[in-house]
# Entry
Amino acid sequence: MAGGIGSRLWPVSTPEMPKQFIDILGVGRTLIQLTVDRFSPVCTMDNVWIVTSRRYVDIVRRQLPEIPEENILAEPEPRNTAPCIAYACRKIAMRNPDANVVVASSDAIILDNVKFIDAVRKALDFTEAGGTIVTVGITPTRPETGYGYIHAAGAQEGCVGKVSEFREKPDLKTAESYLEDGGFFWNAGIFIWNVNTIDEQLRKYAPQISAVMDELAPSFYTEREQTELERLFGRCDKISVDYAVMEKSDEIYVIPCNPGWSDLGSWGSVRTHIDMDTDGNAVVGSDVRMFGCKDCIVHTSGCDTVIIEGLEGYAVASKGGNLLVCRLSEEQHIKDFLASK
Amino acid sequence: MAGGIGSRLWPVSTPEMPKQFIDILGVGRTLIQLTVDRFSPVCTMDNVWIVTSRRYVDIVRRQLPEIPEENILAEPEPRNTAPCIAYACRKIAMRNPDANVVVASSDAIILDNVKFIDAVRKALDFTEAGGTIVTVGITPTRPETGYGYIHAAGAQEGCVGKVSEFREKPDLKTAESYLEDGGFFWNAGIFIWNVNTIDEQLRKYAPQISAVMDELAPSFYTEREQTELERLFGRCDKISVDYAVMEKSDEIYVIPCNPGWSDLGSWGSVRTHIDMDTDGNAVVGSDVRMFGCKDCIVHTSGCDTVIIEGLEGYAVASKGGNLLVCRLSEEQHIKDFLASK
# Structure
């Protein structure tokens, strides 16, 4: 899934070039490239499918030339994750009716890929027979209030366990109790299922979306596909797969895993994934000189010389003529600042 | 005089495009254009001469197309103000042996031009007969430690008075005593003299420079001029006219004046010359949005959208891929920061 606009990492991420297409960590690969790399032990390039917005198709082609062009699906408009997943899985099912699928966002990072792929393999083995959905549950390392949680009492790392329920983003106190309890995991939006299973589940819990897909399906792999998609995709309910299926179905399992996952959802989280200097400053940029600064994230890869003096706990980011200087403690307001004009 | 490199206003001012060629106040005219505009009541464009570095000649031509090309003099290398002035005045004297001249830098601003030109006219009247040099002395409005001072006990605003001596940049306590005393004025580097007078004074106090000019002069207004200048100009002593002549001569006068002068020598001083919002933020830029900021100067005219949150007393400046964020209290270190790589 590569349709997001990543507004929280403005100005490096913009609607024209959102974060999944950016080398946000300064490692030489964009987040979507890192994501595809990550799955290469379990998935050949022929079997990688990207669902993105129409406006990003060319970027995806450019960044992932090894993926067949027909595997890049263009949503006419964003309808959240359920229609996106329904569309991709239906297409995959038409080509391979028994396909066992991993769904993941294209803009997260994972540090321990071996551990992660090990969990994914176990999940794929588990779902192959059909009838079940597995999510990867990230073992929480802090009482994070920015993620949803999966409750699965007694679930063990590396073993598939039954999910009791999904929980919305908690307040700090609740998050702390989750961490203490030990049976709660971050919902990273990574799902493993057999295409037949998700089809059944969507028919049961999101019949409106399944009906649209039934109408669309005859056009798939024909020259009418994009026209039909333009006409019908927008009719799908705008709903996440979490709400549409996960929270309703009884067949949801989790595989707890602690692979160093982050959704890089904010400048503060990006900072923690870049090597810091002894003052806690994380820098992506060619010639960034810092004086008397502490605990800052600086992302100015398009700049020549950058001089920053006397900042503590700030994000400084620049790209394409846009500039952000903002306390990390206030970064949740960046969206409002952008909308303020 | 337009040869400076304005490093204290980096990155808006750079060696490639220093501050005299920039619309630093966002008023629609660059500082050198404002300077030429300023003298138009007393000087026709035919009589304006610019001495600059070779590398800036094209910029001067572009910004001041109304000035005859041959009036733009190109120094092969910077040798401080005495050789620069000696060269220009010698050329002017060859064309008009009785020329009465005002020398000024091209990167200062003056708010009350009527008052200033009134003082300049009086100074020109005074020097016309020859034998005297008049400097414009700016009535101090604060105990500034960044300027040299002119001591002229009892000198009255708008009246030419005798200078007792020039004083180096003082410490704060000394500057405060100057302000209290009342007989001290800022040395703005604005000099008025008859070309014969400066020639005499240079022969007396800077004979080495005069000797180089004697050797150069036969080439002036010929096609050999630039070649000869390349060969000989670098031989001139590297010295300011203040040290070479002003501090030694007995014929120095001052006309005190309070025209709202500033050399715009730092981001802090630029800030005070731009309209501020109610929080004391001075902004030059197209779409600059400030949140929780106080007493900042923001100069991002090349940028699209700029969001700045939570800064108090900072300079934020961006141009051509370079970026500065620095406390105004630390801005005297910008030169060091630039040299630090």
Q: What stands out?
A: The longest helix of chain A spans residues 81-95.
